[in-house]
Write a structure and sequence with these properties.
The chain is an alpha+beta fold. Helix content is 39%, strand content 21%. It has 4 helices and 2 strands. The radius of gyration is 24 Å and the shape is rod-shaped.
Length: 95
Amino acid sequence: MVWTDRQPSQRAVSFLSQCTASGDPGMSERIDAISRGAGKCDPESLNQNYAATAYKWRKCDYGGDSRQNVYEVHPLATVALDQLPTYCVVYNDHA
């Protein structure tokens, strides 16, 4: 078997399926959940994959003769999701 020819999740399924308990009831679902979520549901990975930037702005009155509106813009670090991805929910339920 050549490990580099397969996707990481396929390699994980292949590896975990070698366990003697892999045929027990519920284990195929657990193996699938582990292969899809392992290494992708920790805070660092989630922040890396779903980080985003929002912007907060406010109008500033600086006065002066130009009477132009001046705005201050501040970037805010945020995330693009308000809940865990489905594969992480399944992974956490089977961990």
